[in-house]
Design goal:
alpha+beta, 14 helices, binds magnesium ion, Nucleotidyltransferase, domain 5, Actin, Chain A, domain 4, binds adenosine-5'-diphosphate, globular, 4 domains, seven-stranded mixed sheet, single chain
Length: about 750
């Protein structure tokens, strides 16, 4: 068994994995060099369960069977307002399972949310194992500081279903502060401003040497980059409505495309002042004429739209300040976390609120995983690294695995869009090329050009492709996919990473459209998005060609076929990337390797995010461990029997700040059974409530008269038993076709 402990940021939108040795922290990349794994799971009709980028792409085609954003709902009861809200917004179905738990209903059946997250964690684990070259079974997983007991234990359960021993559930802001090494040279009060895809959190930490204390935390689980995407999509829908009298909001699949386009525009506007986007064939007009959306947005326009949305985050900041009894100016440092903090307006507003420039030297997407890895290393018991982290990079893809990957990808992308959904307005179309198959190079192909490092933010270009095979029949639209069957399939976002000339990527080019009314004009013409830097490196007039042969398509440039497999393409490095964002690398983007100062490993001290209480007569609460109490914490309460011969006591527990029990989050109940049969009031039991360093609850009980331990159980609302976790783990391995 390997002794690495993984640091995992299991994000709402993206997940990241890192490891640390005594001297370095490294974010691990997958075989394609990507460090952000979209936390998306898609259940494909034939290609099994897809996780990450492939699943994210499927969201555009098969939203009903593609599950995302589960972190917002994990550990929440079906009856909660958050689940209610999500059901109104999410395209996949959520239903109520046993014990009030939320289940995702997809074509492969019903899955609990810990199971869905476990698919992501298993993929994370696979990435780590491939990068490190050894099995990994232990992890530290981060959660928002505001997560309650149910959410933490559901996250832990997800880890266990994925075959990981979860050594610690760590608060995300604490992880970020660890990565920044805050407070190591002097005591420091740090505000961590975390604006991700779906959620916002603000936490105030006090750090002194190796002790990190979360003094307050507040959040909004429905505020993040997704809302901005929708806002831009609304603007697009308005433009289209004015131009064509057709409202994209009434067609979920079309709006889903606008949302993806909205994200692309938003990300571009973090570095550019103006962005043009074309969403082609959004719908069809008179006589089946394809109608495109042509859209332009400037940064000030975006800012005007999102200012009030971002302002909501500062209400949350003010709440956290009140809770910590400090003013914004009392904070020594402000740390930015989450991809949405790349938005310049967000940075300015943070600066204005706190009165100081926020810290953003470490990539805001990666910083949490890096901090988790530092804590993971502290818990690993490892003295020194078995091999230097410096040697670990993206694993080289072997030929056979490349082939397997291609086949998998081919199956996954069947019926995939044949055009990009949106892109900057098309450049003047190149002359149509004859449908002649280019000669194949018989000798080894010459080296491909190195990509120049982009000096300006790369834009995506549309490059016409010549399809060398006859327009083949399109597979029938799959069951459950949206949209009228006569419409072309939805289109892929231009927010895709730059094209590397690996044959497996080339499969992203779809077949020519045959079914759509407007698409017959030039069936052999297709488009693929490539990176601007790469486009610039091509001589004018050079064409990319798409050659399909023996079901193994490949891409050629000017008749020269590059080799498949990444090992031969080592010289062809893509521009620095790694974000889900298609935009230019942000100027502050840091190396995925972080040097650690040689110092004592941190001892972490956190606080409980919510008051833990028990139910008392008349529906009221009595606090056991108060909100923001330092943890680990232990409090003991004495319980006595209320009836003669009473053999069991059930005590309901909740988390929250309301005086009435019903206002708070029901956690479940503590059950004392097998009590000795005595008169009422004669049996007294001391119950110790322990909140451990993970913020998870444990209980112990002692019979006061005898001093003997009394049997006690916590039944968490929707909690999973060991047997259920084992069963889910087995089902997951079966679904994924993994033996062990
Ligand atoms: P989470 O913590 O929710 O998993 P991340 O920290 O990975 O999320 O942030 C994802 C969000 O960041 C997405 O909404 C994405 O669109 C947004 N994002 C990423 N890059 C940029 C950028 N350059 N400009 C604006 N938003 C960005
Ligand atoms: Mg995050």
């Amino acid at each position: 068994m390997s002794d690495w402990v993984l640091g995992i940021d299991l994000g709402t939108t993206n997940s990241v994995v890192a490891v640390a040795d005594g001297g370095q922290v490294r974010v691990l990349a997958d075989a394609e060099g990507k460090r952000l794994l979209p936390s998306v799971v898609s259940f494909h009709p034939t290609a099994g369960v897809l996780v990450g980028e492939l699943a994210r792409e499927r969201r555009l085609m098969d939203a009903r069977n593609t599950v995302y954003s589960v972190k917002r709902l994990i550990g929440r009861p079906f009856a909660s307002p958050e689940v209610e809200r999500a059901r109104g917004r999410f395209a996949f179905d959520l239903t109520e399972g046993r014990d009030g738990v939320v289940m995702a209903k997809v074509r492969k059946g019903l899955f609990t949310l810990p199971e869905i997250s476990a698919f992501v964690l298993r993929e994370v684990r696979n990435i780590a194992e491939a990068a490190l070259g050894e099995p990994c079974t232990r992890a530290v997983i981060t959660v928002p500081a505001s997560f309650d007991e149910l959410q933490r234990s559901a996250t832990k359960a997800a880890g266990r279903i994925a075959g990981l021993e979860v050594l610690r559930i760590l608060n995300e802001p604490t992880a970020a502060a660890l990565a920044y090494g805050c407070g190591t040279s002097r005591p420091e009060r740090v505000a961590v401003y975390d604006l991700g895809g779906g959620t916002f959190d603000l936490s105030v930490l006090e750090i002194d040497g190796d002790v990190v204390e979360v003094v307050s935390t507040a959040g909004d689980s429905f505020l993040g980059g997704d809302d901005i995407d929708v806002s831009v999509a609304e603007a697009m829908a308005d433009v289209f409505l004015r131009a064509h009298r057709w409202d994209a909001r009434e067609d979920m699949q079309a709006f889903e495309r606008l949302r993806a386009a909205g994200e692309w525009v938003k990300c571009q506007l973090s570095t550019l002042e103006t962005v043009d986007a074309t969403v082609s064939e959004l719908t069809y007009g008179d006589g089946g004429r394809a109608l495109d959306l042509v859209f332009r947005m400037t940064r000030p326009e975006l800012e005007a739209r999102i200012r009030s949305l971002l302002a909501r985050s500062f209400d949350v900041c003010a709440e956290a300040m009140r809770e910590a009894a400090i003013e914004p100016g009392d904070v020594d440092s402000v740390v930015l976390v989450g991809g949405s903090t790349r938005i310049p307006l967000a940075r300015r507003m943070v600066r204005d609120f706190f009165g100081k420039e926020p810290r953003a030297e470490i990539d805001p997407d990666l910083v949490v995983a890096q901090g988790a890895a530092i804590q993971a290393h502290a818990l690993s018991g490892r003295q020194s690294a078995p091999k230097s982290l410096a040697k670990i990079g993206a694993p080289k893809r072997r030929k056979d695995s490349t082939r397997q990957f291609k086949l998998h990808r081919a199956a996954a992308l069947e019926g995939r869009p044949e055009q990009v959904a949106f892109a900057p307005a098309r450049p003047a179309p190149l002359a149509r090329s004859p449908k002649v198959r280019p000669p194949r190079a018989s000798t080894a192909p010459p080296a491909l050009p190195n990509l120049p490092a982009p000096s300006t933010p790369p834009l995506s270009f549309l490059v016409p492709l010549v399809l060398d095979r006859p327009p083949s029949s399109r597979p029938p639209p799959e069951e459950g996919a949206w949209g009228p069957s006569s419409a072309p399939p939805p289109m892929a976002p231009a927010s895709e990473p730059p094209l590397e000339l690996d044959a497996s990527d080339v499969l992203e080019v779809g077949e020519p459209s045959t079914g759509a009314p407007g698409a017959q004009a030039e069936p052999e013409r297709d488009s693929v998005v490539i990176d601007a830097a790469y486009a610039a490196s091509l001589e004018p007039g050079r064409l990319l060609r798409y050659v399909a042969e023996d079901s193994e398509p490949s891409i050629v440039i000017d008749g020269i076929e590059p080799p498949s497999g990444s090992e031969e393409l080592d010289g062809l490095e893509p521009p620095p990337s790694g974000s889900s964002a298609p935009a230019a690398p942000a100027p502050e983007r840091a190396q995925p390797v972080l040097a650690l100062a040689a110092k004592q490993l941190p001892l972490l001290m956190d606080v409980t995010p919510r008051t833990l209480a028990i139910e008392t007569a008349g529906g009221y609460c009595r606090a056991i461990v108060r909100r923001n109490a330092p943890i680990p914490a232990e409090q003991t309460r004495r319980f006595t029997t209320a009836q003669d011969g009473q053999r069991a006591v059930h005590v309901r527990i909740c988390q929250g700040e309301g005086p009435r029990f019903a206002e708070n989050q029901l956690l479940g109940e503590v059950v004392l059974d097998g009590l000795p049969s005595r008169s009422r009031g004669e049996v007294s039991i001391d119950v110790a409530f322990l909140v451990d360093a993970d913020g998870t609850l444990d209980v112990r009980a002692v019979d006061v008269a005898t001093g003997r331990a009394q049997a006690i159980r916590i039944r968490l609302q929707g909690g999973l038993s060991d047997a259920e976790i084992a069963q889910m783990a087995a089902r997951q391995r079966e679904v994924l076709g993994e033996g062990v």
